[in-house]
Amino acid sequence: MGKVRRVMRCYNCGAVLQSKKKNESGYIPEELLENYTGDGQVLYCQKCFDFMKGINTGALEQNIDKAMIKILDDAVATDAYIIWVVDLFAFNGTINPELAKKMKKLKVAVIGTHRDLFSSLIKDETLIRFLNERFEEVGIVPDSVTILGNEDNVDIVELMKKYNEARKAHDIYLIGSKMSGKTSLINRMFKYYNNKTKWPIKTENYRGTNVKVMSIPLSNSSFIYELPGFSLATSVVGKVEKDVQKLIIPRRKIETHYRTLAKGDALAAGSLGYFELFSGKPTAIKFYCAEGVEIKKLAADKVSEFIEENNRKRSLRPVSERITSFRDYDFFEYTMENDGQVHDISVEGLGWISFVAKGQIIRVMFPKGAALKESLAKLR
Ligand SMILES: Nc1nc2c(ncn2[C@@H]2O[C@H](COP(=O)(O)OP(=O)(O)OP(=O)(O)O)[C@@H](O)[C@H]2O)c(=O)[nH]1
Ligand SMILES: [Mg+2]
């Protein structure tokens, strides 16, 4: 995998921080840059020192609610079977390491949803391999990986049978991000579900928490618990207004845009994401996103001007009123290895670029606090 490094910018003015030239923009004393731990710490250029607040917060991974963690401790304590539902489009960034550490102790079946958004030329095996890789990366070897989409012909009865055997009479906890497709899956299962137990299906606060959980009895002593979705706080979807969400969530097929970036070029995805080839040979990239996202190639040093102008003119959608100045973005830099393999850099909820890694440096600017992830490509 490529190496990621935060590009340090002054929080206040957005200038790239440097400690070489005192009179130039972004100057900061060397020891401040050197001792920066990234841990809740804030950096300002000397000039903006008086206005100290905020940070380059790039989360890289999703946050999980404390109450939810408590519930999942129960899952671990009872050796429950986990069904982890993930949205194949907005997947990167959704595995929280703390959560993964817990789930590692259990049997985990993975379901990748939204298959219908991908071309039918893409094989299920390709998507299955990608999900296996991402889970194995955090120490989870999935018990099974299933790909689902609207209008597929997956045999749900067979799937339920498979899980029923695999769970070995233990409870099932159905987990996943908000909007990943948990309820859609349950609804598909309900068509064939027959409650022969003494318990009703109910939704109530999980014991000792104020988290609403639906429990569906499987036998007189075991249940499926459908947990609320994990927060979209690290997804661009969770950071923008409703009308912008409509543009970035794909409804039909995912669009693929082809562009070649030369050194100093940036690809703008509306006002929500910028991918810059900072160094390296011209690179052919594909950008995958919803049909509502417009893209444009521009000179990287014109990005700040462009942001300002696009706020006014809205010539490249989507534009969010919540993300209007440099301060509203995080800024990261990937130094890619030179392995000749196809890699993705993905901004959760917005889309991803895909390209052959040849030692390039790629800078990504994206809404502050969204999750960013680099990995071997999803579609390869
Ligand atoms: N195209 C497509 N849309 C899907 C698929 N699965 C779910 N959706 C849609 O995605 C949205 C969210 O689905 P839900 O099933 O409500 O997701 P959830 O995981 O229960 O979400 P929360 O209850 O918020 O945690 C809905 O608009 C669904 O119609 C799928 O496979 N393909
Ligand atoms: Mg739901």
Would you write up a description of this structure?
By secondary structure, the protein is α+β, with helices and mostly antiparallel strands. It has two domains: 66-226, P-loop containing nucleotide triphosphate hydrolases (Rossmann fold), CATH 3.40.50; 236-376, no CATH class. The chain is 20% helix and 28% strand. It is built from eight helices and 18 strands. The protein has helices spanning 30-34, 66-77, 97-103, 124-137, 156-166, 182-190, 242-248, 303-313; strands at 3-6, 81-87, 107-113, 144-147, 172-176, 202-205, 212-219, 222-226, 255-261, 265-269, 273-279, 283-289, 295-299, 329-335, 342-347, 351-356, 361-367, 372-376. The protein has a seven-stranded mixed β-sheet with strand order 4-3-2-5-8-7-6, sandwiched between helices. The protein has a six-stranded antiparallel β-sheet with strand order 1-14-17-11-10-13, with no helix packed on it. Strands 9-12-16-15-18 form a five-stranded antiparallel β-sheet, with no helix packed on it. The longest helix is centred in the middle third of the chain and has 14 residues, at 124-137. Mean pLDDT is 90; it is low at 50-59. The chain binds guanosine-5'-triphosphate and magnesium ion. Magnesium ion binds at residues 182-183.
